Amino acid sequence: MRCMKRKNRVSGFTLVEVLIVTIMLSVVSLAIYSTFANGIKIWQRVNAVSPDEDLDVFCEKLASDIRNAFLFKEIRFTGKPDTLQLATFVQSARLSNKAPGEVIYAFDQKLEAVSREAKDYSGVYNNERGVSSTPLKGVRSAVFSYYAYDPKEKEYFWQDEWAQEGLPLAVRVALQREGSDTESAVVRTFGIPVSAIDRQEAQQ
């Protein structure tokens, strides 16, 4: 009988031992859970889409088109408060490369978006429809303005429309996103290098 009691005592666990094991498992489980939770939070932050990411991409594309603008008789630079049309280099599907062409940016108040239509010179000559995209959505207002120089008055000024010959010195766009007030409107200015060179040559 004594031997049986000793065997039972040796093979069994006391209440204190069970409590210690339970506490240790709880601590380990909590550590594993916190590690996974932090990993998930970091993954979500890395893969989260920034609310202004599309705005940055739009501004980069617009800046590239304006920087590469040039004078071309068949594609006249036309600027209005809600529309910008210019000759620049576009991606041509026919040539599988960059080629001279036309780009039109237009703000649609009903759709609350800024669209972009691009076509190479062949498409312009054949009056074909270009490749359309909507690089920026959720826009309450988008206003283009154009920086000009008056050689007679020797003054620089911004104007709402551009209908004269040549290119403006710069293009400015003021954007107001959904859920923002007028004070937080985004304003970007893009210079036209070719226009600045032409103006310097004309003054010499």
Strands of the biggest beta sheet: in what spatial order? 1-2-3-4-5
Structural class: alpha+beta
Q: Write down the overall mean pLDDT.
A: 85
Radius of gyration, whole Å: 32 Å
Task: List the uncertain runs.
Answer: 200-204
N-to-C terminal Cα separation, in Å? 119 Å
**Helical content class:** 25-40%
Shape: elongated
What order do the SSEs take from the amino end to the carboxyl end, as H and E?
HHHEEEEHEEEEEH
Number of strands: 9
Strand content: 25-35%
Most strands sheet: 5 strands, antiparallel
List the main descriptive attributes of the protein structure presented here.
204 residues, alpha+beta, five-stranded antiparallel β-sheet, four-stranded antiparallel β-sheet, 9 strands, 36% helix
Describe this structure in words.
The chain has five helices and nine strands. By secondary structure, it is of the alpha+beta class. It has a five-stranded antiparallel beta sheet. Strands 7-6-8-9 form a four-stranded antiparallel beta sheet. The longest helix is centred in the N-terminal third of the chain and has 33 residues, at 15-47. The radius of gyration is 32 Å and the shape is elongated.
